[in-house]
Amino acid sequence: MHLIFYSSEGWQSWGLGAKPLIPEGMPVLIDADLLLEDAGRPRATVVINRWLRELPGLGVPARKSWEYYARVLRDWTRFLSEHGCNVFADRQQLKSVLGAYAVHRASGPVDVRLAASTWNQHVSVLSMFYRWSVDEGHASAEPFRYRQAQVLFDNVVRHLLLAEYRNYQQGVMPSGPGARQLIDFFTSVDGQLVAERPSPAVWGSDQEVRALISQRASTLHLGAANYCWFTDPSKALCLQLAGTPKADRPLAGLCDSARCPQATHHPCHRPVWIETVRTNKAFIDGLPRVQKAERTRLTAAVERGERVVAEIDAAAGEREDQGEDA
């Protein structure tokens, strides 16, 4: 599937009697085979494109928002296709795929992961699209509500936190500036479980642990290279850099997890840091000698990345496979 943007340039040569009433820059989704229908029925992309064209009349006048909405629908449609599901499949099918999509977006490949706030924005767009589709007769009912999708993602985040707690129990510790605080929290969970059990040797069930970590999970924002525990906005380095210490969510674009006191690194983040080190080393090798400032900056980034990898390895115990090291 391709995403392009409409331009009326040269419309006089299209054999039309008047200029099309399509806003400049309007995003358009096109299937790879360029077909618009199947067995006489319009494809989902045709319906999506109609919805996109109506966005200005639906209270979405900004061009940047049109592009954002188009990318949300493109990614959702691709995921559905990969799982053999149509955009307008029955409600139960779509709800099932949404669950898989939440896992994909929370803990899948690094380049597709979303923070909880971004996920909420995505499902808000999807909910808006399906409500319109019901009104226009393309869908019989909304497949899921915004709150349902939000709860799905929250459950995935709780599962990730549970997994890190189990890692802690196995001796695989977090690293990074916020590691001590997270370990202290896990220790407090241990204390609560021991107090409620006759034998401290018996681990708490997943259900019991989830109940104890639920509030903490609500502060977790998933980053590609770290976990952000947004427990105290005043301590968030990104907000300090932006001059917005009272904001209600972190700014991923300004994240410096090697310095932020609320950031932690885990074994799942190691590949990202390894690749960052390799990429920066390649850039350094290709720099002319005269670019000393850029060489200094990249060298510092390499050293920081190598330090983060070493800390992850130390916290997780000795790695048997050292061939992955930069």
Notes on the structure:
A three-stranded antiparallel beta sheet has the order 5-6-7, with no helix packed on it. It has a two-stranded antiparallel ribbon with strand order 1-2. Helix 1 runs antiparallel to helix 2, helix 5 packs across helix 7 and helix 9 packs antiparallel against helix 10. It is mainly α and 326 residues long. The protein starts with a strand and ends in a 10-residue tail after the last helix. Helix content is 52%, strand content 6%.
* Global mean pLDDT: 86
Number of H- or I-type helical stretches = 10
Structure class: mainly alpha
End-to-end gap:
36 Å
Strand content: 5-15%
Number of strands: 7
What's the SSE blueprint?
Layout: E1 2-5, E2 27-30, E3 37-38, E4 41-42, H1 44-54, H2 63-82, H3 91-107, H4 116-135, H5 146-169, H6 179-196, H7 206-217, E5 220-222, E6 227-229, H8 237-242, E7 263-264, H9 270-285, H10 292-316
Primary descriptors:
about 325 residues; mainly alpha; globular; disordered C terminus
Q: Quick recap of the structure?
A:
52% of the residues lie in helices and 6% in strands.
